[in-house]
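Record format v2
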Amino acid sequence: MNTPHAETNSPADHTLFTVHAPGVDVEAIVRDIEATVARKMEEGVYDDARVARAERSNLATLQNRDEFLDFYLKCLREVTLINISDFEIRERRRAWAPLLVCLKKCIWNLLKFYTYRLWSQQNQVNSLLVTAVENTDRKYADKIAALEKRIAALEADRPPTSTGD
Amino acid sequence: MTSLDPSRPTATNPPHWAFITPRFSVQGTIGGAETLIKQLALHAVQAGQRVSLLTTCAEDHFTWANTLPPGRETVDGLEVHRFPVDEDRDLDAFYRAQDAISTGRQVDADTENDWMCNNVNSTALCEHLHTQGATYDRILAGPYLFSLIGRAALVHPAKTWLIPCLHDEPFARLAAIKHLFASVQGVLFNTEPEQQLARQLFDFDPARGAVVGMGLDPFEADADAFATRHGINYPYLLYSGRREPLKGTPVLLDFLAAFRARTGRDIRLVLTGSGQFDPPPDLAPYIRDIGFVSEQEKHEAMAGALAFVHPSLNESLGIVLLEAWLARTPALVRAQSAVLRWQCQASGGGLWFRHYPDFEEILSRLMDDPALRTQLATAGRTYVERTYHWPAVMQRLESALQ
């Protein structure tokens, strides 16, 4: 981390904006961090709905990063499905607690009949949309890869041409 | 012109510089670019230059009402001339044109003309340059975004240097702005990425530009004073400035909320400055909004922070970043900000993140590694002391103007 640097400008050396000030090689630290992050992404450490939500205001700046789109689609998959399962019904207030729990269970059973149909349909729509985005992304990625391969083959067949004529 | 000509610069009669900026305030609030030009002008006076500053009678950057009287005053040896802003602006036409340009799509010449003509202008200031311009040896005008500056710069382009404070935004792509950059004698940039942006947008010849920036006076700040005063007994990140989407504050709030939820670690956010913000509900109890503070208190808040976060994308120079380094605090910026990332690379005083996973990894390392924090902070302070001390800045300015 304490990388030595040749540039040790004195205050009199006014005109230089030295890249890599003496002391810390931040480029190396960031490279190391990016490598760690790439490994953790592979391991699924960031496949988390909270990460997908956190990226909502950062997405516009990541449009041109291919590797990030794959990661983001994985995160999106995590937030697609609304949890419609039953859950434990509790009551914080001590007085009348058993009665209140029974009342809540009764209300939930009535609501469930309605909400189950609604949210299960919403889950289907969300899943289909994410699948469509994934397929579109894959289709265009394949097309681009095929075109790049074809260009490389065509360029290999041709003798190199000089530029700047 | 003979050697007896009183207007000719000599050892006892130094060259006369005129700085032009839309607003000037002795103590009140003005924008970052206007502050930069004010400071350059004041330090030019201290360096022994003859300096005038031409500005408007406006204080408010929304209304541009002429609230100050026109005329001259002297501020710390700086001769300030105030001129009224033209009051015949067609604001409807201006905002229509501004909205069209803001979309980023190419606009026609009429729309561009509407925007320029109904922008902030001062015919009186340009008249002054027409009649008195010969008395100035160098004219320095900025920032680029105001028609007032564009028009004033083109009165005597051969002796005018632009201080654009250029951002990568739709307004920078107007034909009039390209013409402005091509017409002036030279351009003074704040950072190298800003100069590269001018090259990319306008095919600007680097030989006509120079990187000057703004100086800062070193200070010492008590790292415990701020926490004691506000009863803070937890590690915190600091952001100082306007809270708005363009400054990237929503990204900071979302990332910190996710960090706390995912890692379970208690790191909080302290904000100074102004503007509304809308934090995720889970994060709201862990934000301390201090609002406007004095420079000393801001520096103390910086000194006590685990790191200073600057999530903005469009900057021509991160002055608060330089201040944070002087306060011996490392910085955290977004990789997508070419200028702030360049400042961190050049100084060794900060790290940059592309997305949330980077943010989580970097913040975890900073929390776990006090030695790393100290190394980054020390490198940052050394860099600012070396590169942004006023004598160095004034020497760069004088070299650029020769």
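Confidence is low (pLDDT under 50) at residues 1-16 of chain A.
Chain A has three domains: 1-45, 47-80, 86-160.
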